[in-house]
Every structure is written in C-alpha cells, then in structure tokens.
Amino acid sequence: MKESGKRLISLMLAVVLLLLSLYIFGSFVKPVFSEISQLRAELTASRNYLKAQEEAKASFNNLFTDYKNASSIQNLLALALPNKEEVADAVYQIQALAGMNNITLMNIEVEEGQGEAVSAKSLIREVGKMKINFRASGNYFNFKSFVAGLENNIKLMDVTSVEADSTKEPGGNLTYNMVVETYYQK
After folding, report:
1. Which of 68, 93, 115 is the last residue of a domain?
2. Same-domain status, 20 and 91
3. Which tens digit of pLDDT belongs to each residue from 3-57?
4. Domain co-membership, 121 together with 173
5. What burial class does residue 71 get, using C-beta atoms within 10 Å of its C-beta: 0-12 exposed, 13-18 middle, 19+ buried?
6. pLDDT digits over 55-84, tens only?
C-alpha cells in the first residue's frame, strides 16, 4: 500500500473515532450529566430546608429557655412597668436621653399619681400613669433623636404633647414644651 493510502485510512479512522466518541458522549455522558445537575439542585434545596429547620429549632429552644427563666422576663417587665411610681428613675432616664442627644432640659414638673388607672386584664395589678412636664431646648435633629429615644426606652413612656416655640434661641435652637406619660403597677 502506498503511503498516501495509509494516511487516508488513518485520517478516516481518526474521523470515525471522533464521530464515535461524540456519539458516546451524546448518548451516555450528557444524560448522566443532566441527571447529576438535577440531583445537585435537589441536594441544595434539601440543605436549605434543613438549615431553616435547624434555625427554627434553635429559635424554639431559645424561647423555651427564656420561658423556663421566667424571672428574667419578670425583671424585664419590672423595668418596663415598675411596681411603684419611681419618679427619680423616670426623670433620670429622661435626663440621660436628653444628655445623649445634646438637649437641655428646664422646668421639670412631675404630676404623681395623676390620670386614671388603666385596667389590664393580663396583669395582676392595675396600671397607673405619671405625667412629667418639662421644657427642652435643642436643634430639630437632636430633638427628633431624643423623642425616638423616649419612645424606644425600656421604661414605657408616651410622648403625649409637644409644643415648639417659633422663636429661636441663640445658636439656632428651638424650645419645646413636652408632656411625657410613664406607667407603673399600682
């Protein structure tokens, strides 16, 4: 056989092997690859579901532990709703929030035991109100932070009235007349 014939046969054999390998890849490997991709997606979904279940279990365990430690919940309730008026504590909390927000307090007046008792069926005792009237001085943005601090304080406080004087003090500060109600257990 001539050398050119041998080359032609080897070239045709290479093309046949190439086509045969493409056929084998298309027939066997590609379907298995798509099946593996599907199984990987199912595995990822199962892992996400397992993670969500573990987080729910951990959350439940934390809640159960907190429930077992009812004394800590009672302590939090005592901070939010004390057993007596605790005037000094309420005024101190307002002053501390004012100091953190660069607000100056003036003319603090406390009306102890004012207001009607609020009946609360979920608590053993009735809830009483205490009003704190005061004047505050500061810029608007600091005042806004101060009011947000009062509303988010651990002790229950409601800002029931705010009046702003339109005359600005030196330095651009406004003067605010405020009424804050705090609550306590009778």
Report:
1. 68
2. no
3. 888 888 999 999 999 999 888 888 887 778 888 999 999 999 999 999 999 988 8
4. yes
5. exposed
6. 888 888 887 776 666 566 666 677 777 777
